[in-house]
Amino acid sequence: MKVLVIAPHPDDETLCCGGSIIRHVTRGDEVHVIVVTDGRYGAPKEELRGSKELVEMRMRELHRAVRRLGLTPNDVTFLGFEDAHVKYRVKEVTDALRDVVRDLNASLLYSPLPYDGHPDHSTVGKIVTGINVMTRFYLIWIPIGTRKVGLLPLRRWKRVKVNIEEYREKKVEALNEYRSQLGGLTRILERLTGKYETFYLRDTSTP
């Protein structure tokens, strides 16, 4: 099986489905990761935000992390769109994602949900819903306050829980490579490093 993991930012691939990536690799599946943005604004340290230094740092962290997951840097495509600007580049991102899916002939995608609370994630998710390949959608940033209403459509989606207990330690090791990010991920790490990884299938999909 050819699997494509779509990550809006470096680290999303590990947060959402690091255990599942290891599971696929262990089973002999071909796994590729596509990172949409450069992550230049994602850092707990304000002085790093927007800098070329942060972009380069996150790329190095990404390469170290995927090695922990059983991949190599050659298994990663870095599109390099500006962080936080996906909603302004929908056509270009759509064309790029479609090209990669076609070139890899992927039969299973992992993508953020179109209802994720982060605008880069939700925009990528909306784009992927238009690609006719079986997709497991993941949720990282839960909308807060009244925005939680946006999750109501999930009631029509099928939820799948993948047991990653035997791969959990390696997933955590991969996450620890993202040293520039860990201070800002505290509130979601507990939810995303448990025994299961949770995905959602559209009601027209099958697991």
What would a concise description of this structure say?
The protein is α/β, with parallel strands linked by helices and 207 residues long.
Multimerization state: single chain
- List unreliable stretches of 5+ residues: none
* Global Rg: 16 Å
Write the CATH architecture name.
3-Layer(aba) Sandwich
* Helix-strand string: EHEHEHEHEEHHE
Annotation field: number of helices: 6
> Which secondary-structure class do the elements indicate?
alpha/beta
Strand numbers in spatial order across the main sheet: 3-2-1-4-5
In whole angstroms, how far apart are the ends? 14 Å
Percent in helix? 25-40%
What is the strand tally?
A: 7
Fourth-level CATH superfamily: LmbE-like
Look at the structure and give the mean pLDDT. 92
- Tertiary shape: globular
Q: How many domain modules?
A: 1
CATH top level class name = Alpha Beta
Tell me the fraction of residues in β-strands, as a range. 15-25%
> What name does CATH use for the topology?
Rossmann fold
Pfam family, one: PIG-L
Protein name: PIG-L family deacetylase
GO molecular function: hydrolase activity, acting on carbon-nitrogen (but not peptide) bonds, in linear amides
Outline the fold blueprint.
Layout: E1 2-7, H1 12-26, E2 30-37, H2 52-68, E3 76-81, H3 90-104, E4 108-112, H4 119-128, E5 135-138, E6 158-163, H5 168-175, H6 186-192, E7 196-201
Parallel strand pairs: 1-2, 1-4, 2-3, 4-5
Antiparallel strand pairs: 6-7
Helix pairs in contact: 1-5, 2-5, 3-4
Task: Explain what you see.
This protein has six helices and seven strands, in the order βαβαβαβαββααβ. By secondary structure, it is an alpha/beta fold. It has one domain: 3-Layer(aba) Sandwich (Rossmann fold), CATH 3.40.50. It has a five-stranded parallel β-sheet with strand order 3-2-1-4-5, sandwiched between helices. Strand 2, helix 2 and strand 3 form a beta-alpha-beta unit. The longest helix is centred in the first third of the chain and has 17 residues, at 52-68. This is PIG-L family deacetylase.
